[in-house]
Amino acid sequence: LRLILYYNAISDGNPEFIESAARDKFGNIITFAPMWPTNYATLHHQEFRKKSLGQLEELFSQYRKLDGIWFDIYSERLYARNQCVKDAFTKRFNKPIEQAAQEELQLLESETVSAYMKEARAIADKYQDEAVFTFNGSLITWFNGYKQRANHLNPQLQYWMRETNSLDVTEFESRRAHFCPKPIEMGSLINSTWFTPLHDTIPPLGRKSAKHVVAEVASAMCRGASIYLALTPNHAGEYGEDLEAVGEAGQWVKSVKDYLDHAQPHADVGVILGTPSLDAENFGNKNAFWNDYNQTQISPETEAMSICEDLENAGYFSQILYAYADYTSWPASLSRL
């Protein structure tokens, strides 16, 4: 069982870090949400950045083997207007942030979080170079059009993940597994809350039956994704009846593991995503059919996913195909057609 640690690198509700909290143009602290009022911070605040990286170094150097870090809420606030944010923007673009274009704010954010993760990677490599990195939502960063951010961060990630928390979303998102260039992981909360109760009571039961949890695990793993099941204990480390549902899911995985290992998706239909890049590794210039098409025409990936879902409901299994210069999911047999 691999030990992947949750790490919140860019927000902290600890009063110690109040000076580094991200603030809007009116000076108000930017919080995550009313139900989770942790303060966003900014990596442009050098003291906070130093402490955040220092805690990572402590984790990798002072304890036993860690298999990886799962970064949560891993983004800067584009509307933060701390003086250090203003200074960073002016240094990067040679103009005040008041004149910023949205694309410039996004570029600065991508470069900032990427630079932090490169330093985090160097720390991990110094002590435990086999540790893996991912961040919450990394699965949809590449597929939902955030190519600039994806290009900065994806080379530093060993797998992609997405919090799904429901059977419907798990079923939909795990369809990406067969054509993703990296392993993907779903995540689902099983009991009713992320928060340990203030008293010594066990968190209330969730609404997911054992059959529901098994179905959620099966929907991910049968499509080639992995999945974690989140449980919240009380302060004594005790779990409620939800643990039994997780146990049943574990037994199901053991019963079918031999069938799932090295399994490949069956497909009756191929759904082509956009126009293939002729310089992709498995494509080349072998198929002249594509020569007249605009190479930059990329169809929405979510539309292709919906087509696959409709086909499956009609009894046909499909596979999404694409051939970009950087990533390819394209059978060699189609290159020769």
Entry keywords:
3-stranded parallel sheet; 337 residues; 11 strands; alpha/beta; globular; 10 helices; 14% strand
Task: Please give a structural write-up.
The chain is an alpha/beta fold and 337 residues long. It has 10 helices and 11 strands. The protein has helices at residues 46-62, 83-93, 102-127, 138-143, 147-153, 167-173, 210-221, 242-260, 301-313, 332-335; strands spanning 4-7, 31-33, 36-39, 68-71, 132-135, 160-163, 184-189, 226-230, 269-272, 318-323, 328-329. The strands form 4 sheets. Strands 1-4-5 form a 3-stranded parallel beta sheet, with no helix packed on it. The chain has a 3-stranded parallel beta sheet with strand order 6-7-8. Strands 9-10-11 form a 3-stranded mixed beta sheet, with helices on one face. Helix 7 links the parallel strand 7 (184-189) and strand 8. It is globular and about 55 Å long. The relative contact order is 0.08. The mean pLDDT is 86.
